[in-house]
Fold this sequence. Notes:
single chain, globular
Amino acid sequence: RAFRAALAFDQSFSESWTNLGVVYRELGRDEEAIAAYQEALRYRPQWAEAHNNLASLYDAMDRHEDAIGHYAQAAQARPDLQDPFFNMFHARTQICDWKDYDKSLKEIDQRIQRLLKQRGGQTPLRVLHAMSYPLSGQVLKQLSMRESERILIENEEIRQQFSSRKRRARSRNLARDPLRVGFMSSDLGSHPVGVITQYLFG
C-alpha cells in the first residue's frame, strides 16, 4: 500500500516499483512481480538491483535464458556486485552453456580469493553449488567455514529476539494462549536436503 502511494505521487519512482516486485514475489504473485521489475527498469534501465531481482525470479521459474540476460546486465552495470556474476554462471550451467567456461572459472576463483581475504566478507556462491566446480578442497573448506560463521551470527540474532519475546510473554497469562509449534532450518531456508531434492525432481 505504501509503495502504491509513492507511485501515485511519482510513477517513475523506480525504487517503489522494485520494492513492489519484492513484495509480490514474497506473496507468490510472480507475474505481477515481473511486471513491477520491468516497470522499474523502464524508468531506470541500468539499475543493477532491479536486473538482479528480475533475473533471480526468472531463475526460480526455470526461465534460465531470461535470467542470464538480466544477470549479465546487472553485472555490467555494477561489476562490484557479486551475486549477478555467480548466479549467472550457475544459471548457464543449468542450460549447459559452456561458452567461456574456463575463463569464468578463473574469475570465480579470483573473486572468491578476494572475498575470503576480507574480514567478515560473505560470498554469494553457495557451498552446494561450489562443490560442482573444480575448486580446491582448501577453498571449499574456507567457503564452508565462512558460511557457518554467517549462520551462527544469524541464529544468535534470532535467539536474542526469541529470548526478548519470551520475557515479555511471561507477563501474560499463557494458559489462554494456543500452543504454537514451528520449524526453522538450521541454515535459514536453504537446507541442503531441500535443495538437492529440488534438483532431483525439478
